[in-house]
């Protein structure tokens, strides 16, 4: 099973808000997910962005691949990644 770390949109119309989730790569964008590990709100800015570094590193060690956008968020938040 291919696992991805990606964004799930939960905001309303013209008010985007996202959850950072771990999901099966075959599931739809806003569909089922395995675990929620963070939040990202582009309207409020980086001060409201949250990501659980322990769970992120756990999933990366177990083979999960982050999407391009999540990779950019990880770099912006300067979270130390311990991929195994």
**Arrangement of strands in the largest sheet:** 4-3-2-1-5
- Into how many domains do the coordinates divide? 1
Which structural class do the helices and strands define? alpha+beta
Low-confidence stretches: none
| Count of helical stretches | 2
- Give a quick account of the main beta sheet: strands, pairing sense, barrel closure: 5 strands, mixed
The CATH class is identified as Alpha Beta
Counting DSSP E segments of at least 2 residues, the number of strands comes to 5
CATH topology: S16 Ribosomal Protein, Chain: A
> If you compute it from the alpha carbons, what radius of gyration comes out, rounded to the nearest whole angstrom?
12 Å
Instruction: State the end-to-end CA separation.
Output: 18 Å
Q: Encode the helix/strand succession as letters.
A: EEEEHEH
Can you identify the CATH superfamily? Answer: Ribosomal protein S16
What this model shows, in words?
This protein has one domain (3-77): 2-Layer Sandwich (S16 Ribosomal Protein, Chain: A), CATH 3.30.1320. It has two helices and five strands, in the order ββββαβα. The chain has helices spanning 53-61, 68-77; strands at 3-9, 18-24, 35-40, 50-51, 65-66. It has a five-stranded mixed β-sheet with strand order 4-3-2-1-5.
Summarize this structure briefly.
The chain is α+β, with helices and mostly antiparallel strands.
Keywords:
84 residues, alpha+beta, S16 Ribosomal Protein, Chain: A, five-stranded mixed beta sheet, 5 strands
SSE blueprint and pairings:
Layout: E1 3-9, E2 18-24, E3 35-40, E4 50-51, H1 53-61, E5 65-66, H2 68-77
Parallel strand pairs: 1-5
Antiparallel strand pairs: 1-2, 2-3, 3-4
């Amino acid at each position: 099973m291919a696992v991805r770390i990606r964004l799930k949109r939960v905001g309303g119309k013209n008010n985007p808000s996202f959850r950072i989730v771990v999901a099966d790569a075959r599931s739809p964008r806003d569909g089922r997910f395995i675990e929620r590990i963070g939040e990202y709100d582009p309207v409020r800015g980086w001060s409201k962005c949250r990501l659980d570094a322990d769970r992120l590193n756990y999933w990366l060690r177990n083979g999960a691949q982050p999407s391009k956008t999540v990779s950019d968020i990880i770099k912006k938040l300067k979270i130390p990644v311990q991929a195994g």
